[in-house]
Amino acid sequence: MDRLLGRTLIVFGVVLVVVGLVLAFAPRIPWLGHLPGDIRIERGGFRLYVPITTGLLVSALISLVLYLISRFR
After folding, report:
1. What pLDDT shows up at residue 52?
2. Left if phi > 0, otherwise alpha if psi is -120 to 50, otherwise beta: which for 57?
3. SS3 49
4. What pLDDT, in 10s, does the model give residues 2-41?
5. CA torsion angle 61 63 67 68 (round to 10)
6. So where are the chain's domains?
């Protein structure tokens, strides 16, 4: 039971580090959030942004990482 808790805490720690790195370096990736298929509507005082393509890309990358982790486990 202690080993499982330890591994779980390590995984959560790694996930937090990865999320922190993404948040720190995301503004330096110019194409992230501006891909074809991302919907942006700006009119007067109204702004709507729906990052469909960016969301699909991030989802595919997360799925690939989780697949690779489960494959080598």
Report:
1. 92
2. alpha
3. strand
4. 788 888 888 888 888 888 887 788 778 777 778 899 999 9
5. 20
6. 1-29, 31-73
